[in-house]
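Long-time lurker. I teach an intro course on protein structure, and each term I like to show students one example going from raw sequence to a predicted 3D structure in token notation. This year I'd like something fresh instead of my usual example. Would anyone be willing to generate the tokens for the chain below so I can use it in lecture? Attribution to the forum is fine with me.
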Amino acid sequence: MEYNYNQTQFSKILFAGVYAGIIATVATLTFNFFYRMSTDYNSSMIINVSSLIFGSLIVLEFCALVYLALTSFMKNPAIIYLIIIIAIGVLCLLGTSSVVHADNLVESTHFHGLLLGVISIFGLCAIAIPYFIKHADKFF
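-- Reply from a regular --
Happy to contribute to a lecture. Here you go:
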């Protein structure tokens, strides 16, 4: 059965957020698995499978909604969106250095490595949202 319909800008942006969220979910789960396996770090209850799955989808849908809000104010919001996302990503990466997770230096270092990886993956997927919107016919 073939459907012939045009997608609205809202649906393209929403699907781009979902698509980026799914990619981020798979990437963070893979990173989480291999990072924990290579470092024997298993004590983080904050970064677990359920928080990675729901967190990536929620964060990237929020990023897509930010892009949607920017489209209502300007004709080509991709540059401003990328500046905002990169600035927030850098601030988050710098902020992870001040997080104290455990009294043990080794566990704290492993937690920082895991958190830096997850934030980096979220940031890269958030940066890809305008690309997914521009090339929606290839992805959706």
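Some talking points for your students: The CA atoms of residues 102 and 108 lie 5 Å apart. Helices lie at 9-39, 49-73, 78-95, 105-127, 129-134, 136-139.
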